[in-house]
TrEMBL record:
Keywords: 2Fe-2S, Aromatic hydrocarbons catabolism, Dioxygenase, Iron, Iron-sulfur, Metal-binding, NAD, Oxidoreductase. Belongs to the bacterial ring-hydroxylating dioxygenase alpha subunit family. This is Rieske 2Fe-2S domain-containing protein. It comes from the Bacteria. Residues 46-157 form the Rieske domain. It comes from Paenibacillus validus. InterPro entries: RHO_NdoB-like_C, Rieske_2Fe-2S, Rieske_2Fe-2S_sf, Ring_hydroxy_dOase_asu_C_dom, Rng_hydr_dOase-A.
Length: 455
């Protein structure tokens, strides 16, 4: 595929357009942009690897990806979580080919070298005979992921040792993650395994859809209205707040159609309500008690959705976390985790899981709606007209919803800048502006001066 030459002039023009609420369409499907994103965004950003509940005991392991790097995540004998490049230092074979399991040593399928789950080389086939007794095994251990850290059970990895610490990177998002992950005793657990599938879509599109686009719900998911699951009011997914955070993170808090009877706490069982009061601050509790949906994106590619969902006459909630793993400019691998409060009753967990599978699982009705759209937008963004070769920038997309019309709230109890509706484009612009500032080098994700001095 032809690629666009990314010179300073082009980047400056994109910046100018985005600041005016217009986005050149070709950035949604361009190989040169994609290569830059890998080097300037994904090589430095914190990305989700999984959840602690997937590594229940010492010896548990899961295999994941950080974009193009295969990663082995383990719980060691001491109970620590570590992550390594899942590639043997002898000839590069993928060391562990299973998705998950339990073992304390890993033997490479190619020539049989073996490693413990601290990453140390502990066995070499015919070692003394072919490498001599003096072989320095210390030198040939697995390559560790430069940074691994957890927040409320979520395990993140970062490919850059100099990126700011995870909590600083999450910034204001921590406050909203607490509502989703830390509201009940014992936190959340992953049920089943993360499902994954390939979509012909650009990762920015899917991140933006969760982070800043409740506007699409009334149209794309219109079947829910026709079935009587969602209200008739076309503004129904706009009521609430859109919150714009540092580092390109965004959250939308839907509160439902005013005047309609909204079940408290997203339909979670009454016996759990006292936990929410105990574990959350008054402000966080207020949000959880009144919201219908919390949906957002942790930059760059970790989206989340916590809906109030009804099926078979029951209401339930779940937390769907998903990573949009970029494969190319027009392809992603979706990783989708179903998470539920550990403290929830078993029957509720099962009903909720069924609800997730039917809605946002890979064959879920709502998932199918979105997948179709994302693929068609991506496809329409690589042609001659979309590419806008002459730099005239006539082909720009509209990111102006709310512009000059909706002002931020004077007072908001949580971090970030909040708007009194989710039908605005401030979150999408926040994400794209931060993305572009990383591409142009105007900002970086390195540790601040203070942190480097401490080091
Ligand atoms: S590649 Fe792993 S032992 Fe040779
Ligand atoms: Fe959707």
């Amino acid at each position: 595929m032809m690629s666009t030459v990314l010179d300073e002039d082009r980047l400056r023009k994109i910046k100018e357009k985005i600041s005016q609420g217009m986005m050149p369409q070709w950035i949604l499907n361009d190989p040169a942009i994609f290569d830059e994103e890998i080097e300037k965004v994904f090589a430095h950003a914190w990305q989700l690897l999984g959840h602690e509940s997937e590594l229940k005991e010492p010896g548990s392991y899961i295999t994941r990806w950080l974009v193009h790097d295969p990663i082995l995540v383990v719980r060691t004998k001491k109970g620590e979580i570590k992550a390594f490049l899942n590639s043997c230092p002898h000839r590069g074979m993928q060391l562990c080919t299973a998705d998950f399991g339990k073992k304390n040593t890993f033997q490479c399928p190619y020539h049989g070298w073996s490693f413990n789950n601290d990453g140390k080389l502990i066995g070499v086939v015919a070692g003394d005979k072919v490498y001599g007794e003096g072989m320095d095994k210390e030198q040939w251990g697995l390559k560790p992921v430069p940074q691994v850290a957890t927040y409320n059970g979520l395990i993140f990895g970062c490919l850059d040792a100099n990126t700011m610490p995870l909590e600083e990177y999450l910034g204001g998002m921590k406050w909203y993650f607490d509502i989703l992950l830390n509201r009940s005793d014992g936190g959340m657990e992953v049920r089943g395994v993360p499902q994954r599938w390939i979509l012909n879509a650009n990762w920015k599109l899917t991140s933006e859809n969760f982070g800043g686009d409740p506007y699409h719900v009334a149209t794309v998911h219109r079947s829910t209205v026709e079935l009587g699951i969602s209200p008739q009011d076309p503004l129904f997914s706009g009521y609430g707040y859109q919150v714009v955070l540092d580092h390109g993170h965004n959250v939308n808090i839907n509160t439902g159609v005013p005047g309609l009877d909204i079940p408290p706490y997203q339909g979670m069982p009454e016996e759990m309500w006292p936990m929410f009061q105990k574990n959350l601050t008054a402000e966080q509790h207020d949000i959880l008690s009144k919201c219908t949906v919390i949906v957002g994106n942790c930059f760059p590619n970790l989206s989340f959705l916590s809906p109030l969902h009804g099926s078979e006459g029951h209401l339930h909630n779940y937390l769907n976390m998903r990573v949009w793993r970029p494969i190319s400019a027009d392809k992603i691998e979706v990783w989708s985790w179903f998470m539920i409060d550990k403290a929830a009753p078993e029957a509720y967990k099962q009903a909720s899981y069924k609800g997730y599978i039917a809605s946002f699982g890979p064959s879920g009705t709502l998932e199918q709606d979105d997948a179709e759209i994302w693929a068609r937008v991506t496809q329409a963004s690589k042609g001659i007209l979309a590419r806008d070769k002459d730099l005239s920038y006539n082909n720009v997309l509209n990111y102006m919803m709310g512009e000059g019309k909706v002002e931020p709230l004077d007072h908001w109890d949580g971090p970030g800048v909040a708007y009194p509706t989710c039908y605005v484009d401030y979150a999408s612009r926040n994400m794209h502006e931060f993305w572009l500032s990383l591409l142009t080098g105007d900002v970086n994700l390195r540790q601040s001066a203070v942190h480097s001095e401490i080091k």
